[in-house]
Amino acid sequence: MPDNTLLFIAEPQSVTSVFSPLKEAGFQAGLADNLAGAINFIKKSKPCLIFTRPVMQGYSAQALLAEAVNIENFPPVIIFSRNGSADEAQKFLELGARDYWLEPLSWEKIKLMLPEKKHPAQLPDEIVPPAKSGSQGTQGRYQVIGNHPAMQRVLGLAKQVAKSKATVLISGESGTGKEMFARFLHHHSDRSDRAFVAINCAALPEHLLESELFGHEKGSFTGAISRKLGKFELASGGTILLDEITEMELGLQAKLLRVLQEGEIDRVGGVETVKVDVRVLATTNRNIEGAVKEGSFRQDLFYRLNVIPLKLPALAQRGDDIMLLAKFFVEKYCREYGLTPLAFSDESVKWLLGYEWPGNVRELQNLMERAVLLSGAGPIASKHFLNDPDAWMPEDSFQPISESSEPGASATGSEQTANTAMPVGGSAHSGVVTISEMEKQLIIRSLDQTSGNRTKAADLLGISVRTLRNKLNDYKKTGLNL
């Protein structure tokens, strides 16, 4: 059975967010919305895993599982549901499902189910530099770039405590890699084969966050039409990450403290306690000790979370690590877009080392993807970082499709050839494409990553929504609808 193909049986909008990281990790994905289409795909493509809704219009996962006896080497089936219940989970597990999950269907959780041999040495969210000696740094699926002493200290501490059950409080500015360090800790722990569940404490109001963390019983509040398992139960045996913990309300902080002390939860509206075995990691980009003094964060909870403190340095404080990371990301995106390796101009290196990096590593990563797509044949210059998007002139960096282009051939004609020959994420036979085509690829990718949200895509691109809208209108005139 092939070990690089997955089948999703669901509405496209609920699963397409994981397609890009799957592709980057070397996997293919199929999508079906009915039983006949799913069975046909299973017989032809022989996927290694199936992720399916319990029911959709004209489809039932129960019927799919019933087909397992008729197909040789039927792949494992994982049910994922918006509003799951213990009864439904038990029913599908008895019918032969491998597991039962609640939404969201995250890439982090899917990764844990993928065949181990297909994991590449460097996943999209791994940062792996050569160490000073020229050899690879920390081995494993989650590795960390950085030769700066501050990063080496944090990494050494993380490795030392990874196998323990101690709670870890990871602090640092936004974009410094706090969640990556949390995954590093989980992957290097004795729980690495169990679930890693992350929840952003700032994303939900208190009453919804409590339900997400601890679950709720049927009828416990308006809209609670069935029992729902919380993140702590889903993470039992594994690790839970409480992202932006300082945004949690005081009332919920008290309930979290009890979970940490007693190892048990109370579902909203429940009458019985539920034992959980979960390692807790937390992150914050705020001064948590200051929040304790202000009274917005409980002191006893702070002490309970701060058993092992990991404080990540800002990128601007990491010296030569900036170029180490920049080169890594450029190499990554050159491979991803099928482009030849690119060098940095001296002027761009000076700019990178002198910039303050308010967005830290996340900002650097986005900037390097942008530079790869805009620099053509290179070398990368600071103008390719698109610091002033409205002043960008693609014509200045136009590269012809081949050296044999006829003298006097118009840029428009060459550009049309490039647009015809160049698929998204690929390269033309000559290896050179127009800047405008690269720009289009970057916009398409950003819209894909943000599920079509233009505001978020513009933010990711570092341009105004107006500029993005104008670009999309231009594409629409050529017959491309985004």
Give an overview of the whole structure.
The strands form 4 sheets. The protein has a 5-stranded parallel β-sheet with strand order 2-1-3-6-7. Strands 9-10-13-8-14 form a 5-stranded parallel β-sheet. The two termini are 36 Å apart. Helix 16 runs antiparallel to helix 18 (435-449). It has 482 residues and is of the alpha/beta class. Mean pLDDT is 79; it is low at 117-141 and 395-433. It is built from 20 helices and 14 strands. Helix 5 (86-95) links the parallel strand 6 (77-81) and strand 7.
Report the average pLDDT across residues.
Answer: 79
| Major sheet characteristics | 5 strands, parallel
Shape: globular
How large is the radius of gyration?
25 Å
Q: What proportion of the residues form beta strands (DSSP E)?
A: 5-15%
Report the helical percentage. Answer: 25-40%
SS content category: alpha/beta
- Strand order of the biggest β-sheet: 2-1-3-6-7
Stretches with pLDDT under 50, minimum 5 residues: 117-141, 395-433
Total count of strands:
14
Cα(first) to Cα(last) distance is 36 Å
Number of helices: 20
What is the gist of this entry?
With about 475 residues, this protein is an alpha/beta fold. About 40% of the residues lie in helices and about 10% in strands.
What is this structure's SSE topology?
Blueprint lengths: L4 E5 L2 H4 L3 H6 L3 E5 L2 H11 L3 E4 L2 E2 L2 E2 H6 L10 E5 L4 H10 L3 E4 L4 H5 L37 H13 L6 E4 L6 H10 L8 E5 L5 H9 L16 H4 L4 E5 L6 H13 L1 E3 L6 E3 L3 E6 L3 H7 L4 H7 L2 E4 L9 H16 L9 H9 L5 H15 L36 H11 L13 H15 L4 H8 L3 H13 L5
Parallel strand pairs: 1-2, 1-3, 3-6, 6-7, 8-13, 8-14, 9-10, 10-13
Antiparallel strand pairs: 4-5, 11-12
Helix pairs in contact: 14-16, 16-18, 18-19, 19-20
